[in-house]
Design brief:
Blueprint lengths: L2 H16 L25 H5 L4 H11 L2 E5 L5 E6 L2 H6 L18 H13 L6 E6 L5 E10 L6 E7 L1 H37 L3 E6 L5 E4 L1 H7 L3 H4 L10 H17 L5 E4 L6 E11 L2 E10 L12 H11 L4 E5 L5 E4 L1 H7 L4 H4 L14 H12 L1 E10 L5 E13 L2 E10 L12 H12 L6 H23 L4 H8 L3 H11 L12 H6 L1
Antiparallel strand pairs: 1-2, 1-5, 3-4, 4-5, 6-7, 6-10, 8-9, 9-10, 11-12, 11-15, 13-14, 14-15
Length: 518
C-alpha cells in the first residue's frame, strides 16, 4: 500500500491501541451492534496488541480486493488493489477524484448511501456498486466503509463480485435452458399424444417385464372391442386363440431378447378377425417397453378373386425394385409408391406421400409434371425424360423418368419409373457436329463481322437450338414445349416458322395442340 495510506492507517493503529478512539475493535457501542459482526472480540488489546501502520495496512491489503481511503468530502486520498486483474481492469488514477465519479451512474445512489452511513456510524453495512472497466464492462464490487475517527478519513474495503456474478449468470442461463428444454419436451409430448390418438392403426405400449398394457390409442380400443381406458392395465395378449397367443408371446420374447422379431398372425376369439402383429423395443431410462402394432387383415379371398402367384411375385419385385415406382391418378396425385421413391424423396412412410402431387418432388415445379402428363395423354408412354428429384430435406438427385398410361375402366392412372442417374460416369450430352461447326464458324468470323451482328446471330442460333431441344424432350408436343420454355404457344409457333424447324411427322401433335397451331 502507498505510504500515504500507511500514514493514515497509523492513526487507525494508534486508535486501536487507545481503545475508544476506533469502534472496529474493542467494545462496540450499542448503536452499531448488529451492523459490524455477529460477535465481537472480547479482549482485542490483549489478543491483537498495538497495531502500527504497517500491520494495519497489511491487514487491510490482505482481506480486501480493493481498499479506498476517502477524506470527509468523499474524494479519494489513496487506493490499494489486492489483485493484478483488478489493477489491469481499472483506471488506477483515482487519487484526487470524487469517488462517485468512478462508479457507473446507476450505482451512485448506493455509493451516496454508503458515504452517508459512514458519517453516522463507524462501520457500515455491505453495499454493492459497479465500476466501469477498461474493457467496457462494469465490474461489481461490494464495499463496507470504516470511519477511523469522528472527523477522520474513511476506509472503504471492497470485495470483487465478478466470480459471484459469473456464477449467477451461469445459474440464470441454466434455468433458462431448463425452461426451454421443458417447453420443448412439452411440445414434443403434445405432438406425440395427438399423433398417438389420430393414427388409424391400433397401437399398444406394453411394459416389457409384466406384459401389461401401459397405453393404448382409440384405434386399439375399437379393434379389441374395449375403450382405451379399460384396456390399460390388462395383460397382453388377451382375447386371441391359443395358437395366436403362443405366436404373440413368442414375438414379445424375441423382441425382449433381440430388440426385434418377425411379424406374426393371430385370430381374435370373438370375431375370428385375423391381425398382423408387429412389435419393437423401446427403452426409457431404466425401463423397457414394447410398442405393439395390430393391423387387421382382410378375409382370405376366394379362388376366383385370388391374385395369381406370378402377379404377386411381380408386385413384390416392383416394391423392392432399385428404381422408383410411383402410381398416380389423372391429376398427378400419388396413389402408391415403392420404398426406393420414399428414400429418394426423404419421406418416412408411404402414408405421408399418398395423396400428394408428384410435382412436389420434381425439379421444376409446375413444368415437369405438366409436360409428362400431356405426353402421356397423347402418346400413352414417355421415355427417358431428364429432370431432378428433390428430397424433403433439400437433397437433389438427377433422374430419368419413363412413364406409361394404363386404363382401368373409365378412370386411367399413370405409372412413373424414376431412375437415379447421378452416378453415371458420363451424364453430359455429347456435342453434336452441328454445334461444333457453328462454334468454329463463329470464332472464324471474329474480327471480320461487327460484334453486335455476331451476338444477334448467336442469339438466334441458341434460341433455335433450345427450341429444338424442347421439342425433342417433349416428343414434338408444342404445347408442352412452350410451357417448358416459358413461352406462349403463339410465340413458339412464330419462332418455329421463323427458323424453319420441321417437326417429326410421326409424332406431330394432334387434338387441342394441332387446333391451336392452325
Amino acid at each position: 500500500m502507498p505510504q500515504g495510506t500507511r500514514n493514515r492507517l497509523n492513526q487507525f493503529g494508534e486508535s486501536a491501541a487507545a481503545g475508544p478512539g476506533i469502534r472496529t475493535y474493542g467494545a462496540r457501542p450499542k448503536a452499531v451492534e448488529g451492523l459490524v459482526a455477529v460477535s465481537s472480540f472480547r479482549a482485542p488489546r490483549e489478543s491483537l496488541g498495538v497495531l502500527d501502520a504497517e500491520t494495519a495496512a497489511a491487514l487491510v491489503e490482505g482481506m480486501a480486493d480493493i481498499a479506498v481511503v476517502l477524506d470527509d468530502q468523499g474524494v479519494v486520498s489513496d487506493i490499494a488493489f489486492g489483485s493484478e486483474d483488478l489493477l489491469a481492469d481499472f483506471d488506477s488514477d483515482w487519487i484526487g477524484r470524487p469517488w462517485a465519479s468512478t462508479v457507473s451512474p446507476d450505482s451512485r445512489p448506493n455509493l451516496e448511501a454508503l458515504l452517508s452511513e459512514a458519517r453516522q456510524r463507524s462501520m457500515t453495512r455491505w453495499r454493492q456498486v459497479s465500476h466501469p472497466s477498461t474493457r467496457g464492462t462494469d465490474i461489481p464490487i461490494q464495499y463496507r466503509a470504516l470511519r477511523l475517527r469522528d472527523d477522520g478519513p474513511v476506509v472503504a474495503i471492497g470485495r470483487n463480485l465478478q466470480g459471484m456474478a459469473a456464477l449467477q449468470q451461469q445459474l440464470v442461463d441454466a434455468q433458462q435452458a431448463l425452461e426451454r428444454d421443458y417447453w420443448r419436451f412439452r411440445q414434443v409430448e403434445t405432438r406425440y399424444r395427438l399423433l398417438f390418438r389420430m393414427v388409424s392403426e391400433a397401437i399398444l405400449i406394453i411394459d416389457a417385464p409384466t406384459q401389461r398394457v401401459v397405453e393404448a390409442n382409440p384405434a386399439a380400443g375399437q379393434l379389441l372391442g374395449e375403450s382405451p381406458s379399460r384396456v390399460i392395465g390388462r395383460p397382453f395378449p388377451e382375447g386371441f386363440d391359443t395358437e395366436g397367443m403362443h405366436a404373440i408371446n413368442g414375438l414379445l420374447a424375441g423382441v425382449r431378447a433381440a430388440g426385434r422379431a418377425d411379424d406374426v398372425r393371430a385370430h381374435q376369439l370373438d370375431s375370428m378377425q385375423e391381425f398382423l402383429v408387429s412389435a419393437s423395443l423401446l427403452r426409457q431410462e431404466n425401463a423397457s417397453f414394447i410398442l405393439v402394432r395390430l393391423a387387421p387383415l382382410l378375409s382370405a379371398p376366394s379362388s376366383n378373386t385370388a391374385l395369381p402367384e406370378t402377379k404377386a411375385r411381380y408386385l413384390r419385385v416392383l416394391e423392392n425394385a432399385p428404381d422408383c415406382v410411383v402410381v398416380t391418378d389423372t391429376d398427378g396425385r400419388i396413389l402408391t409408391a415403392n420404398s426406393t421413391f420414399l428414400s429418394l424423396a426423404e419421406v418416412p412412410t408411404e402414408q405421408q406421400a399418398r395423396g400428394e402431387s408428384l410435382d412436389r418432388w420434381l425439379g421444376r415445379p409446375g413444368v415437369d409434371l405438366n409436360v409428362l402428363m400431356a405426353n402421356l395423354r397423347q402418346h400413352t408412354t414417355v421415355r427417358l425424360f431428364a429432370t431432378t428429384l428433390r428430397g424433403e430435406y433439400g437433397s437433389t438427385t438427377d433422374v430419368e423418368i419413363s412413364a406409361a398410361s394404363v386404363r382401368n375402366g373409365d378412370r386411367p392412372y399413370f405409372g412413373f419409373f424414376i431412375r437415379d442417374v447421378g452416378r453415371r460416369l458420363s451424364a453430359e450430352q455429347p456435342t453434336t457436329p452441328e454445334q461444333t461447326r457453328w462454334l468454329d464458324q463463329l470464332t472464324e468470323r471474329v474480327g471480320r463481322v461487327p460484334l453486335k451482328e455476331l451476338v444477334r446471330e448467336s442469339t438466334d442460333t441458341i434460341e433455335r437450338l433450345c427450341i429444338e431441344a424442347a421439342l425433342k424432350l417433349t416428343g414434338d408436343n408444342r404445347a408442352s414445349a412452350a410451357e417448358l420454355l416459358g413461352l406462349s404457344r403463339q410465340s413458339l409457333y412464330v419462332k418455329i416458322d421463323r427458323y424453319g424447324i420441321v417437326a417429326d411427322q410421326s409424332s406431330e401433335p394432334s387434338g387441342p395442340d394441332k387446333k391451336d397451331r392452325s
